[in-house]
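help with this:

***
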Amino acid sequence: QVQLVESGGGLVQPGGSLTLSCAASGMISSIRAMRWYRQAPGKERDYVASAISDGSTDYADSVKGRFTISRDNAKNTVYLQMGSLKPEDTAVYYCNAVLENHWGRRNEYWGQGTQVTVSL
C-alpha cells in the first residue's frame, strides 16, 4: 500500500557531508510527518529529526546544527542533509512517515534503511 525507500547512504570521511533521501509511494493520502531515525551497531534505534506538515522541524540534540531535514511535498520525499559528520553518526538510517487518511486515521510506515558509515 505504502512504501518508503531510502537512498543516498555510503561511506564518508569525518567532517564530510552526505544527503539522504526518502521517497514515499503507493496509496498516499496526506503525510502528516516524515522523520528520520538511526540505529548504530549494538544500540537501540534513536530519533534523529522530524519534518511536520505545517513546515516545522525538530532535531535531536546530537545532530542539531549539523543536520537539516526538508520535504518536497510534490514528490512525497524527505531529505536529510548531514554535515560535519562524526564517526558516531555511523548507523543505518531509517525513514518514517505518518500518514492521515480522509477520515483522520493515522498510520505509520517505515523504510528498510540505508547504511551511513563515517570513517577514514
